Protein 1
Amino acid sequence: MRPGPRKWTSNDEWHVRAYIIRRLLLTIPTLVLLTVLVFLSVRFLPGDVIDTMVSESSVYGDAMDRAAFERMLGLDVPVYVQYGRWIGVLPTPDWRTGESRFRGLLQGSLGRSLVGGRLPVERKLVGRLPVTIELGVMAIIIGLVIALPVGIYAAIRQDTAADYAGRSFAIIGLATPNFWLATMVMIYPVVWWGWSPPMQWIRFTEDPLENLAVFIIPSLILGTGMAAATMRMTRTMMLEVLRQDYIRTAWSKGLKERAVVMRHAVKNSLIPVVTLIGLQMPIVVGGAVIMENIFNLPGLGRVMVLALSERDYPVVSGINLLFATVVVAINLMIDLVYPYLDPRVRYA
């Protein structure tokens, strides 16, 4: 006789709390290491914002030497001191008054931009963040809507025309670079039909339909690339699960195909698929940067490319740290979802 579902006990609740606390504590050294990598990698870029500022000051007749600019921007101290000021463990002096105060990551500040009036970095990013979030969320939804049904259907109809079509789609999607496809979408419709994708960004609150029309093509291109790998993983895991003994037992009891597939097979095949989705988040973030620049979307990707060209270290570091933190948080949530997908996985 098949045992009933196991009851949730107070011991299970304790294990859940302990596991969540342990995982949260493990993210602390991860984020600290990320801050070091983000801070140093930007400063290894060739070129220097100081050279540009010195040349511009001489052109406009307000010449300042390099040392004055370095002192004004806080670049006249060793790199480890700059890092300590950036994260907020060392005080940052005001070059005008000489007054020092703590104003870094630990105080909720990403620093100040080196160009454009030295605005706080968070002020430059807050208005662009919703654009990147909308693009990324739409791409993920489109990718999952394509990948999961196609992968499941290809597995239960193995070696049929539908299976071959799905596998061919996945191979083409993996082999086609997103930036190349986006460029072709921008060029050939104009040449052939005199039509181009919408390029004027409109807020969702002003016109929801026009807003979605602007995002649908870049989201579809970005989501299709994500769907290709996810579909292949879904098909592979579904085939493995469908060969298990308990699935054969369900078939032998006369259960309908929908019940066997949806109730028993799909859920048990999702852990590797969910893991892959988490691993694809950096690809989605990088793809969003490319799509924003090709389709003229005013998101964080546009800001980062401009900041890279200007060597605006705090802005580039802030955006990279924000992206990295989002990826870490999503993977943490995926880890916490595992036991709900497969009862054999326990918080211990």
Protein 2
Amino acid sequence: MTIFSQHSGKMIDQDNKRQITILYEQMYRYMINKDTASLGKILSDDFVLVHMTGMKQSKSENLKAIANGTLNYYRAETDDIIFEHITDADAMIVGHSRVLAAVFGGGQHTWQLQLRISLSKEEDSWKISRAVASTY
């Protein structure tokens, strides 16, 4: 089944869109629960997170920062997921979520967090390969 995206006007495979939406929600659930084993499975080996400051973290650095309490996530409420590009092999989405977090030694704060996420399909499973954080 396919639908037309209101954002891009291109045909979107509904099943891929559903899978990516679930993956986005899982990502936050794993971050909140500090489930770095499960989070690691949905991140590609060459994953890079670009923080709002411009600092880049590799997959291993990001998982370590979540595990050791450098990055603490408490709640995430998704406002929107915009599908900018999607094929059977790769996708680009922009997620808007209100995220309660305490990061890098700061206090808890609710961020209107925008993540521009690049994904690729690896062996029939979607993986997050890059995430660039900003606010919306």
